[in-house]
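User: Please predict the structure of the protein below. I'd like the answer in structure-token form so I can feed it into my own downstream comparison script.

Assistant: Understood. Taking the following sequence of 90 residues as input:
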Amino acid sequence: MMYPYMTLGDDTEITHSEMKPDGRVKVYIETPDLKDGFHHATCYLPDYSWENIYGYSEKEMAYYRKLIGDNAHLILEFSMRGGFANAANF
């Protein structure tokens, strides 16, 4: 299951999985694009391994790497509690 984490001003969606038994969490970034459909990238925490990067420039990826790095502790916490809504008791 993927849980919503953040929506950016350009409609980029960031979602994350539950924490897997091996302690890993999948973070998926997707941005709608009129020409290509969607740009996307996948990061696995806590090791910050990236794969399936499509459509993003190096500058954009630098931004996403920093964003995920700055938010990893929250994403990891929420992944153990069923996403933000469950962690926040909404």
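That's the full token string. The chain has a mean pLDDT of 92.
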